[in-house]
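Sanity check

After download, print the first record. It should look like this:
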Amino acid sequence: MTTLQLQTAMLRCLYHHQQLSLGVVEGVKQWREGLTRPYPFTFKGANCLVSILVDCERIDGAHLSSVLPLQLRKYPLCSNVSSISLFSEELDTQGGNSSKLPKAGASPASPSTPTKLSYTGSIPIPGNKRGTSPTKGSQPSTPRGSKKSKSQHQQQQSPLSLVERLQVAEAALTEEPALQIEVASELAAISDAGRFVPLLRIPTIVPDCLNGIVVSDREWEQQMRGVVADLKERAKREAAAVQ
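Expected structure tokens:
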């Protein structure tokens, strides 16, 4: 196999990696919109988004990088390699399955924005850099369904180009390890305050779901703290694996 043939084969595989990984990142973001925190989406005990970063580092460290230097550590979805898009047309011509993958200019299922902690609670968190927390039980200032929220929703739904979507997804991937450490730290602080945060964001059923429910059972409280401690340790291990 010539160098050109090897490079072509690698780019073809990277096209599938790019498109499928983009779908995973955007799918996880949409899944998190109904949760009280951006919890990790795991498969076989591993955070799927961190696993993408780990795989990219392995590819960058392989001998193939001498044939096609990709900088996957910096660009895990190959947003810097424009030639990958050529394989979308090739698969369409050959009757491949690329029609099922996201295309350039298509809008993701939900607005793609850099992954940050978008919730705010009233439990004071040591070292919280996001500003002063609102008063207990406070709700977003803009009621759901108001004119302002509809306008913001329409603005967020503006289609992004494929490159923009890739860049947004890459930012989310890069931020994921630190994000999970922050989530675990907040949950630990809330747990220490004797509260339990439900998984789902259901303010109509649990009005203070973001801040947590007061726990009166000491035995259950101890078990909850153990789970949160394990979550924090796992987040630290995963962050160390991609440093």
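If your output differs, re-run the checksum step. Summary of this record's structure: The two ends are 34 Å apart (CA to CA).
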